[in-house]
Specification:
79% helix, 110 residues, mainly alpha, 6 helices
Amino acid sequence: GRYTEAADSFREHLTLHSEDHDARIALAGLCATHLADPRAAERIYLEVRASQPSPRQEWVVSQALIDLHRKSGDRGRHMAELARMADRYRGTKAADAAKRVLQELKRDGG
């Protein structure tokens, strides 16, 4: 694949359109998957979160960070993101699922 070229295109686009959170989310997704750079992905997702994303973008970032930390085995950050999801989206199916997973991790981890 031409993933490095795609990432470079996103970076170039973002120098001109720094407010384009969707492009930033796509770049983070490339970093997390095809470029195998989870640290860059996390940094980019957190940049989006800190830059007043739309509710949809905030949701995507939350889900992506949960997945990123689960796959990387970073239990502490995974649990923190699950707790954030459970709190932020309280009363939704996603929040209930996050709470269940968080409880399982706490139970299994001592």
